[in-house]
Design a protein that fits this description.
515 residues, nine-stranded mixed β-sheet, four-stranded parallel β-sheet, 24% strand
Length: 515
């Protein structure tokens, strides 16, 4: 029987004590050094959510190498880009992805060492994969063999954590992912980031946190690894399921969980009788970020989860910039919060002039006082700002008179019709305020008419709901000016990544191709 005082990592029915996980990570670190991996080397990680993911991430960091998680949805060509761009010396991948890694390496003309991680049957079943994934290809070294061959874990290495945090990748929703190469952090910076994250995320030693999103994304990854270092009990979801999320919160008395707005909307799509089955009162920090949350969804989530709901806005380049509590949001609906810890936000026009409160422009930002400087790896983009020490990541929005930030979308997504700027977020929020809509994305499509672009919306009905485009458009007439009314398309799902961001360029391209 597991000692309740010893923190664990749980995934499905598999449970591992965190002391065991740390020991296995130390053995992996020793194996990596034996294989020639040096401090600062990049090690790609292509793994599903499972206990081994956290052990691998910790093991790579323990020897001072840099873990580079790769999106499990990517095809070989996309993986090839990161392998070449990061100059990955080694790849650790689940059996499911070995053919993709082999193909990607060939396409990139690189030859990293590949280490295979055998997939447990329970994980394969939960993901609906072919049972063949439980049998290793045996074409590469196996993680368990490596760990077994190095029974003496590598001990503490001074400065290894700093060396391990030098590179992360952007999500790639607007193009190829860009490597964000950070300056080496000082111990003071590391402590400030860890302390600030733990405090704002509600992590405590002996507490309970749930990983609902994929660990290849920066935010759930960073928080989960920090929780492992702190001795917070960790429950992993192999894949997202709304009712399963509630079941795990109830069963494990979860205090912290990180979600995205799409997840909140799908939780709200559950029938009332299902939601009422589960006790979620243990939650103290239900945090969402990564994509704007429609106000109707946010308000309904606050009605359900109360003060546990927190939100932050940030980016891979500069970390978390603003935070807002549920109480603050009710006083400032639609806002993503105010800057914290010395971070800053300014709104500039296209000529670089600072705009007054309430005026929409490009969002320029600066990370917290302790956040490291960065440059893009092998990429000409600088996203510089005319304001010293600030950058822009392509978002648009405005500041309220009291400093609260409101986002209106991305500059590349602004629709120009008849010479007028139309902000997709405004239309998306109006759509999401209508009953029966679970998800929505608004985008512009070039037209031969003199308007420049036409406005289109793809919407996903809530389960059991039937929607008609004319009815939706009619309902919008009381909420939006006529020139903002979109052409409505009913779809089964939107092309979102697991951080909640929509690949709008795919939607535009599909309509442009049909035009």
């Amino acid at each position: 029987m597991q000692d309740a005082s010893v923190p664990t990592i749980t995934c499905g029915t598999r449970v591992r004590s965190q002391p065991d996980a740390h020991a296995r990570a130390g053995s992996l670190a020793a194996a990596l050094i034996s294989a020639g991996i040096e401090r600062g080397d990049r090690v790609a990680v292509l793994l599903r959510n499972d206990i081994e993911f956290l052990e691998v991430a910790l093991g790579i960091a323990t020897c001072g190498a840099n873990p580079v998680p790769i999106n499990t949805r990517w095809k070989a060509a996309e993986v090839a880009h990161v392998l070449a761009d990061a100059d990955a010396r080694l790849v650790i991948a689940h059996t499911e992805f070995i053919p993709i890694v082999e193909s990607a390496a060939a396409q990139a003309n690189v030859a990293p060492l590949i280490v295979e991680v055998t997939m447990p049957g329970e994980l394969v079943s939960a993901l609906g994969l072919d049972s063949a994934c439980t049998h290793p290809t045996e074409r590469h070294p196996n993680l368990e063999q490596w760990i077994a061959e190095h029974p003496e874990p590598l001990g503490y290495v001074e400065g290894a954590i700093s060396d391990s945090m030098g590179l992360i990748y952007t999500s790639g929703t607007t193009g190829k992912p860009k490597g964000v190469a950070r300056e080496r952090m000082t111990p003071t910076q590391l402590l400030a980031i860890a302390g600030g994250t733990a405090q704002r995320m509600g992590l405590t030693p002996g507490g309970h946190m749930l990983v609902a999103g994929p660990l290849y994304h920066t935010s759930p990854n960073a928080v989960a690894v920090l929780a492992l270092r702190m001795g917070t009990n960790i429950t992993l979801m192999p894949r997202w399921d709304a009712e399963d999320f509630l079941r795990l919160v109830d069963r494990d008395r979860i205090q912290h969980a990180k979600v995205v707005p799409t997840m909140l909307s799908r939780l709200l799509s559950l029938p009332a009788e299902i939601r009422s089955r589960y006790d979620v009162s243990s939650l103290t920090h239900l945090i969402h970020s990564a994509a704007p949350c429609p106000p109707a969804v946010k308000r309904a989530a606050i009605d359900w989860f109360g003060s546990a709901l927190h939100e932050f806005y940030g980016c891979s380049e500069a970390g978390a910039i603003t935070w807002i509590t549920a109480e603050e949001w009710l006083e400032n609906p639609g806002s993503v919060g105010r800057p914290v810890d010395g971070s800053a936000v300014r709104i500039l026009d296209a000529d670089g002039a600072e705009l007054p409160a309430g005026a929409i422009g490009d969002v320029h930002l600066r990370g917290a006082d302790y956040w490291p400087a960065f440059h893009y790896l092998n990429h000409p983009a600088t996203r510089s700002s005319p304001l010293p020490g600030m950058i822009t990541v392509g978002d648009t929005g405005y500041l309220g008179s009291d400093g609260y930030l409101y986002l209106t979308g991305r500059s590349a997504e602004i629709i120009i019709a008849g010479g007028v700027n139309i902000y997709p977020a405004e239309i998306e929020n109006a759509l999401m305020s209508l009953p029966g809509i679970e998800d929505a994305a608004v985008f512009g499509v070039p037209t031969s008419a003199d308007l420049g672009e036409s406005v289109h919306a793809h919407i996903v009905p809530r389960p059991g709901t039937t929607l008609h485009p004319n009815d939706v458009r009619s309902a919008l007439t009381d909420l939006l000016a006529n020139y903002k009314l979109p052409e409505i398309h009913i779809v089964d799902q939107l092309p979102r990544d697991d951080s909640g961001k929509v690949y709008k360029h795919r939607l535009r391209a599909a309509h442009t191709a049909r035009a």
